[in-house]
Amino acid sequence: MHINLILDTEARSASPVPLNVLIRIIAGALVMLVLLALFSFYSSYRGVQQEVNFAKDDWRKTGPKYEAAIHRRTELAQKNAILKEIGGWRASRLEWGRQLEGLRTAMPDPIQLTELRVSQVVLAGSNNVPARAFEMRLSGRTPAAQAEENVNDLRQALLSKPAFTQCVEAVTIPAGAFRQDPQGKNDRVFELVCKYAQRRFE
Amino acid sequence: MKLPATKRERVLVFIMIGVGIVLLGYTIFQIGIIPVLEARKKTEGELEDYKEKLAKARKELSFAAQIGAEYNAVSAQIGKLSAENVLHPILGSYLVGVTETLEEMARQVALKVEDVQEVGLQDFPAKKKDGSPPAFRSYAVQASASGSYEQTVAFVKLLEERNPYVCVTELRISGQSDNPERHRVSLRIEWPVEAPPEPAAAPAVPPAPPAAPTGGA
User: Does pTM top 0.90 for this prediction?
Assistant: First the structure.
């Protein structure tokens, strides 16, 4: 039989550190930890805010310079577009002085030109870039003897002479254009059509 | 304060205390901690934005001298082109200057210019990629002349050498049976001219108030 002579309220813990004290120590430590975390958070937050203020100051000084630089870059782009536009115009033209001079040297002696016509149309080229398409029509007369050779010589010259090789795409004789000269049976008249490669505005 | 004597009541008290602590913690978290964390996150985001903007600005500014030099060079180039190769009107007329130039060049090569007719202004066919209005237009004239083939070639060469932006877009050289040495020459010549600046959008003008009635019949 076991008789407990000590009331519950009189009972003492066997531990050297009483429970109450332990709870207070843990609570105090927790409070300290929370305070430490709050302080650490606050100080780092203040640091970030200070960095923002420094960055704002820096931007106040750098911003206007940056805006000016961007403005200048935009202006440069506009000026370059103007140069490109006028450069495209120049690239689209054909130096007719050089062509006419080349024609003089390419012309076989027995051929007499009666008319030269140059015309151009502006076409929508590839990538939507417009282009000039030039055409030169030559009308001429040549003696009936060897007329075919003479006209073919001229045709070949227009395809092979240095003045034309870079720009002439095709030389054709329209159907019915090579015929007897109505003014003299000993001559033949002809037409040649030189199609030039398209010259793009770029 | 003493805990209740019975175990059941003690457990109940502990549960209530626990629930209270959880509710209190949740309230503190919602009211106190979340707004502070959000504010910090916002400040950090702001800092990142500024850092990014500053880095971009510094990078751009590192090119500023180069861009400035390029801008000056391009401006000078455009100025030179405008002065030397682009046609400018004289008292509002392009034809006067063009006629003088053509006649002066024709004299040099002994070609006889008979007539210079104005064709007019036309838009450049090429459109800018950004859709901005073109900086140039073309001005064309139709000239008729008479001379030999050599004179015509010399005239066209002189015209193109003096201004490499002049474009001969049509040409006709026809022989004359009564005068085989002199041909009839017809040329269409185009020059680039500066396009007028686009008119600024007119400000909205409120309608004028109706005029006060006068005593007329």
Answer: no
